[in-house]
Design brief:
This protein is an alpha/beta fold and about 240 residues long. It has nine helices and five strands; from the N terminus they run ββαβαβαβαααααα. Helix 3 packs antiparallel against helix 4, helix 4 packs across helix 7 and helix 7 crosses helix 9. Keywords: DNA recombination, DNA-binding. GO terms for molecular function: DNA binding; DNA strand exchange activity. InterPro entries: Resolv_N (IPR006119), Resolvase-like_N_sf (IPR036162), SSR_resolvase (IPR050639). This is Site-specific DNA recombinase.
Length: about 240
Amino acid sequence: MATFLLNRNQEAMQYVAYYRVSTSQQGQSGLGLAAQRTTVLAYVKEAPLLAEYTEIESGKKNRRPQLLGAIAYAKKEGAMLIIAKLDRLSRNVAFIATLMETGVNFVACDLPEATPFTLHIMAALAEQERKLISGRTKAALGVLKTKGVKLGRPENLTEYVRRQGLEVRQRNAAENDHNRKATALILARRGQGTSFSQIARELNAAGFQASRGGTFNQKQVQRLYERANGIPRPPAEQHYG
């Protein structure tokens, strides 16, 4: 559903809003249409909001006609596409591919520093992590099954989970929302030859936080970079997360 508004001003930045809800999400705090619209209006302030497009998603997740309509209208008017909540969409390769292919200018209220390039990296990393987690889970269950463990009883997994404690902590850190976004930017900036110390300063300036809170330093940036590239750390350092 598209709503066209009348406030136009060719001198200022103009926006076209894209909202995304589902019938099950509309009543949930922070996910409903009203909350997204409030977020967008707070971001644009007095700037012209030319139109609003609302996607009510069904099981056919790859069909987003309202997104395509919003992109087309934004490009036609030379406006910026604005999205209230990018979060999950940043992990959707198809969504990011659409943004990149169209070349539309956009901003996300919850991740204003994002670019199509960094989002593409984030989506690729998230997809790879999902595959790795799925593969590790299947492999672990397969090993337990060959040992005669009855997988239907949760207590049978206790000893295995304890032995895998370090891996779980590392994965939790990798999946931390701040770490995931920071990792994408780290990979992008390292690809441009930027030093770890400079990247740390940029992350801090952009408001990113380390997994335990606080600011990033050179070692933390290097650690995320190495983890994303599968570079093992010395045993003496593994307890620092």
